[in-house]
Design brief:
The structure holds two protein chains of two kinds. Chain A is of the alpha+beta class. Chain A folds into two domains: 257 residues, MetI-like fold (Orthogonal Bundle), CATH 1.10.3720; 152 residues, Jelly Rolls (Sandwich). In chain A, 51% of the residues lie in helices and 18% in strands. The chains are: A alpha+beta, B mainly alpha.
Chain lengths: 455, 350
Amino acid sequence: MSSVTPQEIKAEFLKSKIGIAGIGILLILILTSITVVVLVPVNTFKQWNNPGNWISYPKVAIPVWVNLFLSEKIPEHKILTTPTVNYDVSGDTSITTHQFGVNFGYDDYPNDFIYQFSAKYSGTPLFQMDVIRPDGLQLKLISTSLPHSDSNSIHSEKIFSTDDTIRKNLYLQSDKFLFPLNNLSAEDIIFSKTEKHEPLKGNYVFLIKVYNDNQENQIPESKLIIGGKAFGMMGTDELRRDLAVGLLWGTPLALFIGLVVAIASVLMGLLYGVYAGYKGKKTDELLMRFNDVIYALPVLPFLIILSVTISNSIFVMIGFLMVFGWVGVAKVARSMSLQIKTRGYVDAANMMGQKDSKIVLRHILPQLLPYAFASIAISVPAAITTEAGLSFLGLGDPSFPTWGQILHDSNVYGAASRGLWWWIMPPGIMIAITGLAFVFIGNALDAIVNPKLKR
Amino acid sequence: MSLKRFIATRLITMFAVLMITLLITIALVGSNMDSILKQGVAFQVRSEITDNPKIAESFSSTDEFESFIQTQIDQRIKTLGLDEPWYSPQRIGLTMYKILFLDFGHATFLTSDSGSSDVKEIILEKLPKTILLFTTATIIISVIGIFLGALSGSKVGSIVDRVTSSFAIISSSFPVWWIGMLMIFLFSFVYQIFPARATPLIPSSDPGYIGSLLYHMTLPLITIVIIGFGSWAYLVRNFIVGIMQEDFIIAKKTMGINQKKIVYIHALKNAAPPIITILALSLSGSLGGAIITEAVFDWPGMGRLYFEAISVMDLPVIIGATYVLTVFFLVSIFVADLLYGYFDPRVRTG
């Protein structure tokens, strides 16, 4: 064990395929983390638990890429914020026109649509919303006057597809359809073929016009949401949150938790064990009895009680995980240092009157480094899964979207028995992949440190 | 160190751990527990007095009546010894003494299926179910694991060995509860074979209860076994690989004893001590992991009880369940230690 030099470890490690694979996965994860931290604004993860932030997103939407494998395409959720704007003045009246083009190529109707706007005007403008369908048919949806205002002011409103006026207007145009419109919702009529009730594919244009009898007439904010059942690369959850954001932010958090806990607890265990082994006699006995006590504490119940009574902050949790993490390493480090202690050079250093701390740090610890690296790599997955488990029980830090939290939410909303696989699979796969990367590295190192297992 | 002394030191350590665990638990939940107890006493006194309308009639004003109730409550608190702070030595001593002899008091919110709120009864009702599930799982895991491990350990580098080893490595990084969610998704949503919730719907007095319980147990059992046997097989494999390099095995090989006999009789026999030790440890380890697994499957055992107790902060149940889990954990560590010390005398000399 002690004859392995760093150069040999490196050479051996590069020969091991599994170790290279581990390093490869780890690099990808680290790159993802860096990209996320640099590119995605910090604000998005702070907004994770703020329902207001996710209001324009769909509920439990399936990932968009699923459509690639389906013959019947699921309607995508579309949030359109950049209309074609037109401003016209003819005589006394001014007309502001906003046009939204929607390419609709799906085999099911959208869930709903919402038009959200704020208009800046004075007087009493007329608001009108029409839709031009791919077959050239133009349907009037709503035509209403906006509230009167004397001075130039801003009025904000949301128009929902469930609005009664829209439905009544559509029923008035029922002669254009060859089937009865009774009890159909607005979006089912707008996006339907005229001859039978089937979705009509093609380009739709939503036309919003505001007429005013003076020239103060603007729509500074204009957003059309076509509610669908598919959204984003990773879909959304029951609380309309974009799962891609949670999964991406989970990566740096998991790496942080895993690495900090593993490195700190292995270092603690190493120092503790080596010191106990080197000192021997009464000190060793005392330190090892204390080690026994911590070793015999039931970890999970304790972590649960601690997080319930003290704090569920992620940093406190990392501290608790360290408290329970160093015990095993200390035992092995002690027995290793018992062996090293008997070697000639340690005796020599001792006789030359070197300080204990110096002997431990200079002569004993370096011998244990290969073992230390292997055990760091092996303890990372344990730390990540323990944290994920605690979060899964609902005891995690609610201000950070970790993978465990996402799984907790999915369990609370019964995702498994409702078949919402995109809410269950990705977080678990991410936990497993991160764990695997470290297990691979740890195994490769372990095989070098304990050559007996290799055969 | 003689075996007797070894056992004695172990026993003392274990008892110390048990006491420390209890102390920490009480320290963590003590102040909450204290206020809950006092509220309970106040409620009890108040209802006793208002039950008897004659007492209320004998007072002229409500203020006087209120102050009478208050003095009664204070008196009761004093006789029960609750006027001292919860961290006073007498009270901690008393609490620990009570808990040591399984007197956990009454649960604040939770009840057993039969309606009792006695924590001891609740725990006694849930414990057998946890033991049933996890002992069965551990036995199946160890049988599969030992067989597979011996097989792949005797043929290092073969397909069996490589598949087993990689399965072990991969399965160890999946959280059991996540696989549980997948299993629920697969077997109760996609193929509706097993129920998603593992709690039987019929009451426990029904004769069909045990059958139903076993049916509901299948999915959690399969999950635990799938995740567990890989690492077992890997462990046994590594022991066997080590032993197969020993001189006496090589000697047996040169004597021409057949390979199977060597592996399953001689090598496995020598690997027995660590295997039995790990078996004892993993039995108790699985009890700790039970908390999350039972929460996923809704299995009506100790783990779910613990989870429920935490979510409503039912402190007597939390303390009782922690105590019972710790006792189980310690007993199995103790047994594992003893077995190891018995099989491998080097351990005793330290």
